[in-house]
Design brief:
Length: 101
Amino acid sequence: MNTTETIGLIATLLTTSAFFPEVKKAYKSKNNLSTSTLTIFIIGNIFWIGYGFLINGNILIGSSTVNLTLQLFLAYCTFKSKKELKVYTRKMLNNLEIPQP
């Protein structure tokens, strides 16, 4: 492995590891990133994967694929929690007793 690949691998490990706490937090607390932020991250990683194929950058392809997988999981948690919030809110409103004048 040459110096360029080593630097790429270190950068990959650092940037990918930054998403693991966010995934853990999203899984446990249902407090997630905004959908617009996730969308930008997901689209960006799709382009990084494409760029990696164009330059034959295996480290770039691998790291972007791992990041994309984590971001898709975050998106899943976000949409699932928003759906659950809507259902919960609807149930609470249906059970709310409003006094009639």
